[in-house]
Amino acid sequence: MQKRAVDIDTFMEGLVARNPGEIEFHQAVHEVATDVIPYMQKHPKYLDEQVLERLCEPDRVISFRVCWHDDDHNIRVNRGYRIQNNNAIGPYKGGLRFHPSVNQSILKFLAFEQTFKNSLTGLPMGGGKGGADFNPRGKSDPEIMRFCQSFMTELYRHVGPYTDVPAGDIGVGAREIGYMFGQYKRLTNTFSGVLTGKGLEYGGSAMRTEATGYGCVYFLIDMLEASGSSLDGKVVVISGSGNVATHAAEQSVMNGAKVITLSDSDGYIYDSDGMTKEKINWVKELKNVRRGRIKEYVNEFPSAKYIDGEKPWNVECDVALPCATQNEITIDDAKMLTKNGCIAVSEGANMPTNNDAVQHFINAKVLFGPAKAANAGGVAMSGLEMSQNSERRSWASDELSVMLREIMSGIHERCREAGTEGDYCNYAKGANIAGFKKVADAVMAFGMV
Ligand code: NDP
Ligand code: 2IT
């Protein structure tokens, strides 16, 4: 049964009992509640109105069967989801993830986080997330298309440009968005901004592809500058080699940093010479066109090394950018990073650092950019894609770049305002409180709903 947010332990006891086994969801709520409960105690109107209790119960959890034919004519069955967490400040908004690990717990954590992230951008977007336990790895193009069409054949009735606007996430990029948009258009006979991350030919926004990774580095630059430092000359370790990782690498290099690692779920590459724009473009082509693995990097660039089965966190660096998936930095990884001199972490992925590791970074006064702030550039650009679709026009990429930069600085400012404690800014706390306040005030305006 639900328990009042009088203190963190009582509240979490109720949440765990009510959502059994959903460990990622428990983790994400715990991380937010640790900062928000003391804040509510200072502002008891939120406690009286049970706002946190209400935000922890999604508006709607939709789960459905997705059947599709593989190339050998076998019928395959997957499970699809859309979690509509909260639409107090705008239509539900958040990505779709296709990965075999997808389950209700992971999508509930992502939809919960998305609610605060979207609030922090300053744009009118609520929080949602969806996806399926479908594994795109090794699937042919026609298999991907049939899966996406079948997925949208159920999802279409739950989404819409003023209701819920999905986008990409792990395993969902331009190709998948194209197939899903085509199916939505066919089923509804409407051409609308129902998805973001669309191709530029059919209503997509310039800069959307780059926005998450670039935004993550802008947030990093703002943290470094606020502490009197800069990114120029810093050694950067990055995990992942997908959309977020490659664009974080690109923006780091553009700011004079030396990027020495990328990874995938099989292992990581270590390039002691540092990556160049050309090398990063080669990785983008490897992942997006040839659908290859990061270990192939060392065939093309033989001075680099491939380390099988490991994560890059034991490599000496100044900055770490986790850009692959949740819980990829454990307490041991965090200790290794600080021992090796890491001074800043900016989260490109969602919840890549587990709660103990976050506490370690904060105690060690590492500049720590939490996901809901540092990776909000992607959804912010999605918000701008929605604006362009509503206006039936598109803005130029240089205009959008300026807007992205300003949005990231605004998020950084909001976090600093709510998170500064003496000479250290606890950005995680700042992001939780600033993100919570706007949604909470809107929820209260509606009365008891
Ligand atoms: P992609 O599918 O483009 O790339 C994902 C990368 O992460 C791949 O290199 C993948 O390797 C690796 N990865 C995925 N799962 C695991 C795992 N369980 N263990 C180790 N590595 C893994 O996804 P994105 O780059 O879009 O997303 C990366 C992260 O960024 C996610 O946490 C996502 O939620 C977050 N994010 C994405 C946004 C966006 O706009 N795309 C916006 C904000 C956050 P492999 O090929 O081996 O699976
Ligand atoms: O986690 C995220 O913010 C995303 N996957 C992007 C969501 C979006 O709607 O652009």
State the main characteristics.
Rossmann fold, 3 domains, 7-stranded mixed β-sheet, 5-stranded mixed β-sheet, binds NADPH dihydro-nicotinamide-adenine-dinucleotide phosphate, alpha/beta, binds (2Z)-2-iminopentanedioic acid, 17 helices, 449 residues
The name of the CATH topology of the largest domain is: Rossmann fold
Main beta-sheet annotation: 7 strands, mixed
Question: What distance lies between the first and last C-alpha atoms, to the nearest angstrom?
Answer: 19 Å
CATH superfamily of the largest domain: NAD(P)-binding Rossmann-like Domain
Bound small molecules, by name, code or SMILES, are: NADPH dihydro-nicotinamide-adenine-dinucleotide phosphate, (2Z)-2-iminopentanedioic acid
Give the second-level CATH assignment, the architecture of the largest domain: 3-Layer(aba) Sandwich
CATH class of the largest domain: Alpha Beta
Mean pLDDT over the residues: 98
Instruction: Note poorly predicted spans.
Output: none
Percentage of helical residues?
A: 40-55%
What spatial form do the alpha-carbon principal axes imply?
globular
The count of DSSP E runs of length 2 or more, i.e. the number of strands, is 14
Portion in beta strands:
15-25%
Strand order of the largest sheet: 9-8-7-6-10-11-12
Number of helices: 17
The Rg value, from CA coordinates, equals: 21 Å
Q: What does this molecule look like?
A:
This protein has 449 residues and is an alpha/beta fold. It has 3 domains: 48 residues, no CATH class; 131 residues, 3-Layer(aba) Sandwich (Rossmann fold), CATH 3.40.50; 166 residues, NAD(P)-binding Rossmann-like Domain (Rossmann fold, 3-Layer(aba) Sandwich), CATH 3.40.50.720. 48% of the residues lie in helices and 16% in strands. It is built from 17 helices and 14 strands. A 7-stranded mixed β-sheet has the order 9-8-7-6-10-11-12, sandwiched between helices. β3, α5 and β4 form a beta-alpha-beta unit. α5 packs across α17, α12 runs parallel beside α13 and α16 packs across α17. 51% of the residues are buried. The structure holds NADPH dihydro-nicotinamide-adenine-dinucleotide phosphate and (2Z)-2-iminopentanedioic acid. The site of NADPH dihydro-nicotinamide-adenine-dinucleotide phosphate (NDP) has 24 residues, from α9.
